[in-house]
Amino acid sequence: RDRVDQGEVVIRDSVQSLARIAGDVDGSRELVDAIAGAAQRQRDAAEELARELAQAARVAEHNAATAEQLR
Questions:
Q1: How far apart are the C-alpha atoms of 17 and 26, rounded to whole Å?
Q2: Average pLDDT, stretch 11-34?
């Protein structure tokens, strides 16, 4: 009977440990999802900035060409 009782304790402890691990995994997954979302937003903002800088460069080039023509 002692071995059965010990086995029950081991199983109960294992179930509790696995439940804690599952909760930790869920928490980690939420953090990874949040990081991935932030990285995507950062990438989108960087791409938008690159487009805006390219547009500003085109405008500056056009303005310089217009200024040359007016000379």
A1: 14
A2: 97
Three-state SS for the chain is CHHHHHHHHHHHHHHHHHHHHHHHHHHHHHHHHHHHHHHHHHHHHHHHHHHHHHHHHHHHHHHHHHHHHHC
Q: Is residue 7 packed enough to be buried (19+ CB in 10 Å), middle (13-18) or exposed (0-12)?
A: exposed
pTM for the whole structure:
0.65
**Two tokens at 7?**
């086995």
Of all residues in the chain, the percent with pLDDT exceeding 70 is: 100
Residue 71 reports pLDDT greater than 90: no
